[in-house]
Amino acid sequence: VNQWVDVDCEEMFVFLAITMLMARNKKLEIQDYWSMDPLSHQPIFGKYMSRNRYQIILRMLHFNQNEDQVPGDRLAKVRMPLKEITTNFKEAMIPFENLAIDESLVLWKGRLSFKQFIKTKRHRFGIKIFVLCDVETDFILDIIIYTGSTTEYKKTDPSLGISGAVVNTLIKPYLNRGHKLFIDNWYSSPSLANYLHKRKTNVTGTVRKNRKGMPALSAKLKVGQTESQHTKNMLVVRWKDRRDVFMLTTQFEDKMVHVGKSDHQGNAILKPVAVMHYNESMGPIDKTDMLLSSVECVRRTIKWYKKLFFHLIDLSLLNAYSAYKTCTGLKISLADFQFQLIREIFTKYATQKQNICRRSNTCLPERLQGRHFPSIVPPTSKKSKPQRRCLVCQNKHNKRKDTTYMCIKCDVGLCPVPCFEIYHTQEKFD
Question: Where in the numbering of this chain does the PiggyBac transposable element-derived protein domain appear (predicted)?
C-alpha cells in the first residue's frame, strides 16, 4: 500500500482483460496464474502485469467514497458502475418484437441482508437480479437488482403488486410499441395482462391458479387434454401434462400444435400453442446463465460488491457478443470472441512503457531506480575529510569498513568499488 501508484484507464483495461482471461484458465488461487512451475507456467499474465500489481488493484477496487454514501442505499458501493452499464445497455439496441423477463442469481453464500434462495437456479444462494432480455438476439436490455424493501421499482398501479411493478419498471420504455412479452408465474396475473394490453403490449406466461381474477378450471383431464376460459382480450388455458400447467395469454388462440415428436405408441405429441411459444421464448435468460458459467471472472474471498461488479462485466461481455453476431451475421463461439476481445485490449492498452514503469514503481526500491553517482563525503565543522560506514560491507561481511565516498541521492556510505555497483544493482546484497 505504501508503494501505491494511481491506476489510469489503460491499466484498468489491462486489469479487466487479465481477469477475463482467468475465466478461461481456471486455477485454484490467484497467485497460481503467475507461477513459474514448468507444469503450470503461463507467461501471458506476467507479461502484461505483475502479480503484486494485480492483487493490490483488486484489493483497492472501490466505486464510491464512504463519506458520500446515501443512507439506506444498499447498492451504494456499486452504484456508479451499475448506473453506467445499465444506461449503456438501454441505449445500445432497439429490441425486436419478443421480449422476456426472468430472474438470474449471482452466487453469494456470505452474509448479506438481501441474499436470496432460488432452488431452481444453478447457484441457489446469492444476489437476485431481474433481467429484461431480447428474445431474438439474447441481448440484455435492463436489469433490476433485488435489495428487499428498497428494490428500485416504480409503484404505479397498486393492483399489480410487487411482481407487476417490477415488470412495469423494466418494460416501461417499450410500452405502446406492439411488443410481445413472455414471463413466468411469479410475475403474471390477469391484472398485469389487462394493464399491458391497454398499452399495446401482449403478454404470455405461466400463471398461478390462485391469482386474483383467475377463472375456476377444475375439470378432470387426461394427459394431453386442455380446458380454457377467455374474455375479450385474454385467454387462460389449463393443460394436463405430467402436472397441471396454467397459461395466460393476450396473444395466442386456444389451439393445439404438433411439436415434431411422437410418444412410445407413435402418436403425435401436441401442446397448446401458447406453451410452445413460451418454451421457445424463455430460453435466452437460462442460456445467459449457462454461458456465464463458462465466463464468470469472479474470484473467491472478495467483497460482494466486487463480485457483483465482475458479474456486470460478464453481462457486458455477453451483450457485446450478442451485438457482434447480430451486426456482422458471423457465427463465432463465445470463447473465440472473448479471446479476440482480450487480444485487442492487450494490443491497444498494454504498452511496453506502461509495463516496465508499473513494475519498477511498484516492486523495486528507490536505490535500484534512476541515476546514482559516487560522491566524496562533504566536510563538516569538525572534520575536513570525514568518513562514513559502508553499508554493503557491514551487511555482507558483518564488519565495519569506513569510506570517504557515498551516494548523495540514497544518503548512504559506500565503497566506490565494488560496493557502489552492488548496492544499486542487486535487490539483495547481504
Answer: 2-321
Find residue 103's DSSP bridge partners: 130
Convert the pLDDT of each residue in 153-174 to its tens digit: 887 788 888 999 999 999 999 9
**How far apart, in whole angstroms, are the C-alpha atoms of residue 155 and residue 415?**
78
The reported pTM is 0.77
